[in-house]
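User: Design a sequence. Structure:
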């Protein structure tokens, strides 16, 4: 949904996300951690992108978040 609460849409592809949800600064993407590891979701495009990111020691990430450039 938009920041003003309009355009509410379900996100069925997020059902496997366990924790770490964070919106991108532009509001188009959500990032989270699920069964596929770190994954980005675009609601408008109905797209899911698994990302091969690992932590500094090679371990799994569990709280991904966005930051400005």
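Assistant: Done.
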């Amino acid at each position: 949904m938009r920041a003003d609460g309009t355009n509410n849409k379900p996100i069925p592809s997020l059902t496997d996300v366990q924790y770490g949800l964070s919106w991108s600064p532009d509001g188009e993407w959500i990032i989270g951690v699920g069964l596929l590891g770190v994954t980005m979701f675009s609601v408008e495009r109905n797209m899911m992108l698994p990302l091969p990111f690992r932590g500094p020691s090679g371990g799994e990430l569990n709280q991904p978040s966005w930051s400005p450039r």
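The chain has no helices and four strands. The mean pLDDT is 76.
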